[in-house]
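Q: I have 120 residues here and want to know how they pack in 3D. Can you give me a structure?
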Amino acid sequence: MKKILFIFLLITVCLVACQSSDNVGQEIEDNLRKIINNKEIIFSSNPIDYIEQNQTEYENIISKGEKGLVYLIEELKSSKENGLKEWIMAKASTDILKTNNPIKEGQTGKEWINKYIEID
């Protein structure tokens, strides 16, 4: 009986952990969508404008910490695009990494992830 209870608890913990990871990805995607689709600055060519106009959403992404970083890096690796979303994901990754960011010069999101992969 104790063995069955232990297995049940182990499965429950695993399911909660997996759900939490999915929630992080969904929350990040929701915030990215809000940032990118902000109609007030839709004609701006400066990605920083999007972040500044949507500071709360951007901070929500950064607040995900290590789990958020893992999600952002995986999404950047698999993305076929190299636009505003990828730039914001790379910027968020550097902000999560802080002083541990091995890439110092500015570039596109795909350039950042390619350099990050080389170093990591």
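Q: Anything worth noting?
A: The helical segments are 2-36, 47-53, 55-62, 65-78, 84-97, 109-119. The CA atoms of residues 95 and 107 lie 15 Å apart.
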